Amino acid sequence: MELFNERSTIPTLLRNVVANIHKPEDTFLIHKKNTQWEEISYKHTLDCADAVSAFFLNKGINKGDRMGLMIENSPEYVYYDQGIQQIGAINVSIYPTLSEHEVAYIVNDSGMRAILIGNTFLYKKILKIAANCRNLEYIIPAFPEYTKVTIPEDVKAQVISFDDVLTQAGKLSPEQLAEISKIRDTIRPADTSSLIYTSGTTGTPKGVMLSHSNFVENVKVCLQQIPVIDETETFLSFLPLSHVFERTATYHVCCAQGCKIAYAQSLELLAKNMAEIKPTVMSCVPRLLEKIHDKAIKSGTAGGGMKAKIFLWALQVGQDYRRVKEAGKNPGMVLSAKKALAEKLVFSKIKEKTGGRLKFMISGGAALPKNVGEFFGNLGIKILEGFGLTETSPVMAVTEFHRQVYGTVGRVIPGIEIGIQNVDTKEMISIQTHESFQENFECEEGEIIVRGHCVMQGYFNKPAETAEAIDKDNWFHTGDIGRFYRGNLQITDRLKNMIVNAYGKNVYPTPVENIYMKSLKVDQIFLIGDKREYLTAIVIPNKENLQEAFKLPESFFQKPEAFIDEKEIIDWIGQDLRKLSAELAKFERIKNFKIKRNPFSIEEGEITPTLKPKRKIIEAKYAGPINEMYAEAVEAD
Q: Would I find ATP-binding among this entry's keywords (predicted)?
């Protein structure tokens, strides 16, 4: 049975599953209601989607209209998304942690007509800006407590409960269903499915236009590259569906293949939910894997003695076994017996905490430390890394299930080309495809560029930015630096010094730094946080204002210590930084900082002649103080 055809779109994937893989009454979605896990069938899901479609058709929503979602992962997200997509409307998912200013920009830039809201906090946020959102007609809260919130008088958008939208689920007339089906058949793979907003270096978000074909082809080739995923899988979903990675790697994959999706209650309850749901597959970010790794190491070696010796012995056995298998050799009876004992004594207990059924985890959004990937490999838990961006739907490369090269992001997916281009000369160093794969191929590093079915349609209403990102030969320039190593793509740097935190969230330093430099006490600020859980910063104070405030002599700035440790000065600057943080999303706010006595200098090689900071040099030079900031912040927690 074919999962895809040349007319496949996001709404047809799920209906294909019901027609050819599962019965309508089979379970599709699982979520916790009160204290019990509740299973939701394909029939109920499609009935709710049809109710959403009928409601919005009655309200005059047309094909191509933009429809918003600002809601946590939940069945309601699926009902709404499937409902709007099958009438040709476009999904505009907003990251829940964005500031009011950023949310207002996205609502207005997209011309959004309606928005689904997930909780009281988000509802209050949208009500504060709704009066200034000219096209917003409907605010749809998906929680009962919304009635306790007073709607400002200047809000013209109509507030309608999502429960009211769903009242006709399973009750639509044959004529209504026929109309929805007719519209669904008019949707073409080339039509836009979603706008996903990603920040630019100027701080202005750009709406990435992704077509049905972008998503469908991405899912199709990823399933080809990881053929072990079948209709018996249970995915546990916890990464935000507002991010393209979770949308494709979990939601769309499950819609196409007929897998179950269980929604985690929260990040804090994830470990508990894993033990309850016993997932077979999960999409995750490196930070989660690092935490599991750290906890396992700490627990296994705590107290020393025989327990620690057995734990370390088991890890060594797992490593030996893994390396023999990866070399294509037979482990032999002795090593196999040791592995079985290590599994019984150590590995099985760690796996139990994940539910005990994991086939593999898909890691994306940020680089996974090589040692963490190897640790899971030693346990017998596969971690498949992938690479891509919002603009590439997102996957460009992903690890093959049977061929692991730690420290790389896998093989080029079928149907696209990935080029490595010299940053300075623009000469092409190498172009690789899925078919050209050679296990021992390597090349020099350069900018990673890509063309093919995964590349976006462009940035919404931004032709100049689109032309800058996609050249005349249709190559999309990722801004990432990488190379091919043992046939797989390896990411080595970022062309524009974008920070990607440990949760895979992109942070562009310049707009964040500009917010903090509104303070008259701050002359310069250098943001830190790549691959880390949160941001910190090195702050250069305004010397004149600092001297005036504390009556400091010139000799104060001539001291050999690079950083100022006087508490009153730290508190003085901290007051402004805390106030200005309110203008930023939570993930953009600095959690700790150090005050550098004197500015970065050209002479010390810290900045270029045009006064741009050399990030790698600064971070290497001040590695000690930077690590202290993270240790202090952890201790403060």
A: yes
